[in-house]
Amino acid sequence: MVDAFQSFPGLSKPHGTVKYAVKKLLGLRERKAGELMDAVATHIEMLKTRSKRLKETLEENRWDVLEPCAGLSMVAKPSVYLDKTLSIKPTPKDGVCAEEGSTYDIKIDNSNIREALLRSTGLCINSSSWTGIPGYCRFTIALDENEFDQALGCIVKFGSAVSS
Fold it and tell me: Can you spell out the DSSP letters for the chain?
């Protein structure tokens, strides 16, 4: 059995990302423990702030948010947007022949909310088929600061596009 593990290259040496993480952790170990704890505390505070901002933005745009206990994501239900109509620009994928600048309407439901949000704003979320919670979508806060701010803007843009 040992021979089998050693002969298979994927099992005999750690993945490159593991090596990188170990190097970083060993480098941090050389610093004072207080610096590491300060960095962790700062990161936790940043995640709390982002979670609060995302929750507020979703609620202001009438999503039903499930209060998270921890983690890097939040789930919310787009109840107010269901059965509403959204005008989007066709793509070749739609199989619709359309003139330049034209749009067509889709009726939003649980099966196409992810696509509607992506096509109208560029924001990619996980739908209920991914979350396993009927009707609820997943949003993440584990983004670069600029990407996170853009995502909040996309949520607002979507709300405006559906409401108008």
Answer: -HHHHHHSHHHHS--HHHHHHHHHHHHHHHS-HHHHHHHHHHHHHHHHHHHHHHHHHHHHTT-EEEPPSSSSEEEEE-GGGTT-EEEE---GGGT----TT--EEEE--TTTHHHHHHHHH----B-HHHH-STT-EEEE--S-HHHHHHHHHHHHHHHHHHH-
Could you tell me the two tokens for 28? 């941090």
Is 8's pLDDT higher than 90?
no
Distance (Å, rounded) from C-alpha 1 to C-alpha 137?
A: 44
Report the alpha-carbon distance of residue 151 to residue 125 in Å, rounded: 10
pLDDT tens by residue, 43-95: 889 999 999 999 999 999 999 999 888 888 999 999 999 999 998 877 666 55
Q: Answer for the pair 114, 126: CB distance below 8 angstroms, yes or no.
A: yes
How many angstroms separate the CA atoms of 110 and 7, rounded? 48
